[in-house]
Amino acid sequence: xxxxxxxxxxxxxxxxxxxxxxxxxxxxxxxxxxxxxxxxxxxxxxxxxxxxxxxxxxxxxxxxxxxxxxxxxxxxxxxxxxxxxxxxxxxxxxxxxxxxxxxxxxxxxxxxxxxxxxxxxxxxxxxxxxxxxxxxxxxxxxxxxxxxxxxxxxxxxxxxxxxxxxxxxxxxxxxxxxxxxxxxxxxxxxxxxxxxxxxxxxx
Length: 203
Fold this sequence. Notes:
By secondary structure, this protein is mainly α. It is built from 7 helices and no strands. The chain folds into 2 domains: 2-105, Up-down Bundle (Butyryl-CoA Dehydrogenase, subunit A, domain 3), CATH 1.20.140; 107-200. Helices cover 85% and strands 0% of the residues.
């Protein structure tokens, strides 16, 4: 009888050990997700892919919550099946955020460059308009003073354009685009003033 009890005890112990072995937390997989999240952070996913990053962060939070819930249980009652499912979903979300960040960054770069090119093109057009205006044979009183003011504005805008290139070099694409759009608006106004002056001078 004693040997039979010992046998059943050994069987129960074996089952318990197997159950415990199958209930180990998927730490390696969790670490892999954290590594991918770190890569997404490095790719500035929060800036260039905020929606995808928020989804990945939400998935990571779900993993952490489930891990904590299982770890709070007695060892024999822990089960990490759901955790593994959540980890797999989090890994996919983190990878998507990383990819979306790279794409968003390239789009932001392209948008910033397009804004800079548009601003510079308007400055070139303004320069041409100033040259044509100065060539007009009829120059009213105060013309030289007005031209000096407009040329001073144009030179200041060109300085700003150089600063835009520096912002692109720093990869500060959002700031570069915003500044370029502001600069173009100023250049548009200068061009409009030059066109108005040319019309009044009948040149």
